[in-house]
Design brief:
The chain is built from 12 helices and 10 strands. It is an alpha/beta fold. Bound molecules: guanosine-5'-diphosphate-alpha-D-mannose and manganese (II) ion. Guanosine-5'-diphosphate-alpha-D-mannose binds next to β4, β5 and α3.
Length: 379
């Protein structure tokens, strides 16, 4: 649905899909924000079109009358306002923003919330900073001098936000090096620096997704005060913490090599259930050899469940659960059977010493198991 402005004397920022230099498309995801969108448009009108040409694109997943309120409020706006209403919302807040990025045609795109926690008055400053510093991405940050997380209700949310920031920056030191607040949902990005097709947002953290996958060349920052919500309540986001962790793992393991390293690390954690089961089974009087074999299965099961959730979440649809589990267990046990003949081969034929031969055999079976998991379980 596109709502044309009544103030037709104002030029639209976009002509025939060619971005006008310096123009901005403001992308606003909305979920039941009917009490906020009118005030948001009023404040955008007060601070943006006087300084640069703009349009506003709402990506709406509401179940209330938000689109109708936007349509009504847009009549007073001297710039184009459009609403992309999604009947089958995909990817929540992150998916909505990606949809908006695809629809935006101006040279600059500003992503912001509808609830006025992000001050619209800052929109022209973000773009001006990007132009002045020749940056591709300008982040409105809450941790810079002059900024604050004032609107984060409750001390625990500030602590969680800090912890999440540290974790993300630790995992992506280069991509997030110049970004003090990668959890911010308020930023400006040059359209040319965004490859919307490459984005697979999983959690709400769309800036994190964009910074890691699109790697904008130059990043600038502007401080801002994260205000209290204007009206209504934040969208309930059950499971967002876990989704955020999965998002980090998915971003971190995008390359095959990184995925192999993660596969190995997950494999190492399998020692814990393996040894615990061994302890219990031998304690119950079982002979150590069958106990070893059984205990190994608990490590295999543990590893399987972890890689299912963390590494191959997107590739589970090719086979049924039992099929995947069976194949994975087969590979993991073949690993054990293969190792001894491999060591014998390395020692007997290649004349290697026992220790390096064992290490090489371990490495070989590991790589085979990883390749096998990729090709035989999840393909
Ligand atoms: N289209 C769409 N679909 N919009 C959504 C959805 C959804 O499923 N869920 C939330 N939104 C919209 C809301 O209407 C609002 O405009 C914006 O996304 C932010 O949602 P809030 O519910 O207000 O989230 P918040 O205040 O907890 O989170 C904000 O602050 C975080 C930093 O603390 C967001 O800006 C996050 O991106 C940011 O990381
Ligand atoms: Mn909010």
């Amino acid at each position: 649905m596109t709502i044309q402005p009544t103030g037709a004397e104002h030029p639209a920022p976009v002509t025939d899909g060619v971005p006008e230099p310096g123009a901005v498309t403001v992308v606003v995801p909305t979920f039941n924000e009917s009490a906020n969108v009118r005030e948001l448009l009023r404040r955008i009108t007060a601070s943006v079109p006087g300084r640069l040409p703009c349009e506003v694109v709402f990506v709406d997943d509401s179940t209330d009358d938000t689109p109708a309120v936007i349509a009504d409020a847009a009549r007073d706006c001297p710039f184009p306002v459009s609403v992309i209403h999604r009947d089958a919302p995909d990817g929540g807040l992150g998916g909505a923003v990606v949809e908006g990025l695809k629809a935006a045609a101006s040279e600059w795109i500003v992503v912001m919330d509808a609830d006025l926690q992000h001050p619209p008055a800052l929109v022209p400053d973000l773009v001006a900073t990007g132009e002045k510093e020749d940056a591709d991405l300008v982040v409105a940050g809450r941790c810079l001098p002059g900024g604050s997380r004032a609107g984060l209700a409750g001390g625990h949310r500030v602590a969680v936000s800090r912890g999440a920031t540290r974790l993300a920056k630790g995992l992506f030191p280069r991509a997030l090096g110049g970004i003090s607040d990668p959890m911010s949902g308020f930023f400006a990005v040059r359209r040319g620096a965004v490859t919307a097709e490459a984005l697979r947002p999983l959690s709400h953290k769309i800036l994190l997704e964009l910074a890691v996958r699109c790697r904008p060349a130059r990043v600038a920052e502007v401080p801002f005060v994260f205000e209290e919500r204007h009206a209504g309540e934040a969208t309930p986001n059950a499971g967002e913490g876990l989704r955020f962790l999965r998002h980090l793992v998915e971003l971190r393991t995008a390359s095959p090599f990184a995925r192999m390293v993660a596969f190995g690390l997950i494999g190492l954690t399998g020692f814990v259930p393996n040894l615990a089961a061994l302890y219990l089974l031998t304690g119950a009087g079982l002979h150590y050899l069958p106990a070893e074999i059984l205990a190994n299965q608990s490590g295999v099961a543990w590893n399987f469940l972890l890689i299912e959730v963390l590494l191959f979440r997107d590739r589970r649809h090719h086979r049924h659960f039992a099929d995947r589990a069976g194949r994975f267990a087969l590979l993991a046990n073949a690993d054990l059977v293969l190792r001894i003949p491999l060591i014998a081969l390395f020692v007997g034929e290649l004349h290697m010493a026992v220790l390096p031969a064992t290490a090489l055999a371990l490495l070989t079976t590991f790589v085979l198991r990883f390749a096998g998991t990729e090709a035989l379980v999840y393909l």
